[in-house]
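The protein record passed on below.

***
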Amino acid sequence: QVQLVESGGRLVQAGASLRLSCVASGLPFVSRAMGWFRQAPGKERELVALITSGGRTNYADSVKGRFAISRDNDKNTVYLKMNSLKPEDTAVYYCNTWGASDDYWGQGTQVTVSS
């Protein structure tokens, strides 16, 4: 059974930093691309960052230079380090992994940035 479990979200003030974690189980983590998405109230879910099995990364324009995605294959964990947080970063953040025939999501972790 595949599980993605996110943690690390909380209420912070603008300008603060947070690190989200997502622990994966039940799949060959080392060979999977991993992504972080977010969904704000009333908005569609959007891709924030992704990292390939080889470590290549890609970011949404809105977070470039502020967020960093990384992975620890020994711990089956993907991280999202978020710096210089803004109120518009407020959202539920989801961990995701996808393949040719599958697509898995975590339950999400709430990040709230106050101004």
